[in-house]
Design goal:
Blueprint lengths: L6 H17 L3 H15 L3 H6 L4 H4 L2 H9 L6 H11 L4 H31 L7 H44 L1 E4 L3 E4 L8 E8 H12 L2 H6 L2 E9 L3 H31 L11 E2 L2 H15 L6 E5 L5 E6 L4 H7 L6 H6 L7
Parallel strand pairs: 3-4
Antiparallel strand pairs: 1-2, 1-5, 3-6, 6-7
Pfam family, one: DUF3493
Keywords: Membrane, Transmembrane, Transmembrane helix
InterPro entries: LPA1-like
Length: 347
C-alpha cells in the first residue's frame, strides 16, 4: 500500500489477502480484509458471498460480523427489524394509521375544547353547547381508543424485538461438527431444527433416552439435539439414592450412589448429525440464563426447540414431548415445511 496502488489494485490485494488468510484459518483477519475491501475500495459484497475460496470463512461466526460491518451486506440490525415485522405483518401499517388518526383526533380535540369553552361562556355568536359537548365526547373517545391501539402495538413491537434479538443471539452460538469444524447455529438454518437440552447430566441423559426410539422420525424432520450439561448433580438421581439409603442402610446407600454415578458416566454413542456439541458451554449457559429470565422459568432441566428459520417455537421444563413434536413438525422435504416453517405462534 505504500507504493500508492490504484483503487483496483488495492481492492485486489486486500481480497486476495482475505482468501489467503482464510486458507490459513486466520478467520478474523480474513473477515477484516473483506470488510475493508468493501468499505474502502468498492468491492461488491456479493463477490465475497459467492466465492468458493471463502466458503469456510462464511461458515464462521466472524462472517456474521462481516455482514453487519460491510457495505452492501444485510446488517444484523436490518435482519432483526425484518424478522420483527414478519411476526406481525400488519402492525407497522396499524402504527402509522392509529398514530396519524390519534394526532388528528388530538388536534381536533384542542379546537373543540376552545369552542366548548366559548359555548360555556355564552354571549353573542357562541357555538351551540350541545353540539360542542357531543363533538368533545366523540373526539375524546376516538383519541382514547386510537391511543390504546397505538400503545398496544408499540408494546408488542418492543416485546417482539427483544424476542428476535435473543433468537439472533442464539444464532451466533457455535456448535462443533467434527474435530475441526465449528459453525454458528445460523449456518444450520434451513437444514436443522435444533433442540437445546440444558440441565444436569441426568436430565440430559433421560431426555436423550426418551428420544432414542423416535430418532429416525425426528431426523426426517430435521431435529438435532444440542446437549448442554450444566451440572453433574442430578436431584432425581440423588433422591433415588437417598431413598435406597433409608431402605437398605449405609451399604445400600454407597451402592446406590455408585450406580447413579455409573449411569451418569455411561458412554453414549454419538451421531454427529443427531447430536451437536456446544462449542462454548459458558456462552451457551449465559444465553440460557437470559432466556430463563425472559420466560420466568427457574427449573434446571429445560429444553428449547428452534425452527428452521431460527425462531424459538417451543420451550419448557422436563423431558421434551418428542412424540407430540413428531405429529406437529412436518418432514424436511414436505411442501408444508417449504411454505410454513417458522410461521405462526410459538408454543
Amino acid at each position: 500500500m505504500s507504493l500508492r496502488p490504484t483503487q483496483d489494485e488495492a481492492r485486489a490485494a486486500l481480497y486476495n489477502g482475505a482468501c489467503a488468510r482464510a486458507r490459513l484459518r486466520q478467520w478474523q483477519e480474513a473477515a477484516d480484509d473483506v470488510v475493508r475491501a468493501c468499505n474502502e475500495y468498492g468491492l461488491k459484497f456479493e463477490v465475497a458471498a459467492k466465492d468458493p475460496d471463502l466458503r469456510q470463512l462464511r461458515e464462521r461466526r466472524e462472517w456474521l460480523d462481516t455482514t453487519s460491518a460491510a457495505v452492501g451486506a444485510v446488517s444484523s440490525r436490518t435482519l432483526v427489524s425484518a424478522r420483527t415485522e414478519l411476526r406481525a405483518p400488519l402492525r407497522l401499517a396499524r402504527l402509522f394509521a392509529s398514530g396519524g388518526l390519534a394526532a388528528g383526533a388530538g388536534l381536533g380535540l384542542i379546537i373543540i375544547t376552545g369552542r366548548l369553552v366559548a359555548s360555556l361562556r355564552g354571549g353573542p355568536g357562541a357555538p351551540d353547547l350541545n353540539e360542542s359537548l357531543t363533538n368533545f365526547a366523540i373526539n375524546s373517545a376516538a383519541l382514547a381508543a386510537l391511543s390504546w391501539v397505538f400503545a398496544r402495538d408499540l408494546r408488542s413491537l418492543s416485546r417482539d424485538r427483544r424476542v428476535v434479538e435473543r433468537e439472533e443471539a442464539l444464532a451466533r452460538l457455535q456448535v462443533r461438527m467434527g474435530s475441526e469444524r465449528v459453525v454458528p447455529l445460523a449456518r444450520l438454518r434451513g437444514q436443522v431444527r435444533p433442540v437445546l437440552l440444558a440441565g444436569s447430566a441426568g436430565y440430559v441423559n433421560r431426555s436423550m433416552r426418551a428420544a432414542e426410539a423416535l430418532r429416525p422420525e425426528l431426523r426426517t424432520r430435521g431435529v438435532a439435539v444440542v446437549p448442554l450439561v450444566l451440572s453433574d448433580e442430578d436431584p432425581e438421581v440423588r433422591l433415588q439414592a437417598l431413598k435406597a439409603q433409608f431402605r437398605a442402610g449405609a451399604g445400600a446407600d454407597a451402592k446406590g450412589f455408585g450406580k447413579a454415578d455409573a449411569a451418569r458416566k455411561g458412554a453414549r454413542s454419538r451421531d454427529a448429525k443427531w447430536e451437536l456439541e456446544a462449542a462454548d458451554v459458558p456462552e451457551w449457559g449465559q444465553w440460557l440464563s437470559e432466556q430463563r429470565r425472559a420466560a420466568g422459568v427457574g427449573a434446571d432441566g429445560v429444553y428449547v426447540q428452534v425452527q428452521l428459520d431460527g425462531s424459538v417455537r417451543a420451550s419448557g421444563t422436563g423431558v421434551p414431548p418428542w412424540e407430540r413434536w413428531i405429529d406437529e413438525l412436518p418432514e424436511l422435504d414436505s411442501l408444508q415445511t417449504r411454505l410454513t416453517d417458522g410461521v405462526g405462534t410459538s408454543v
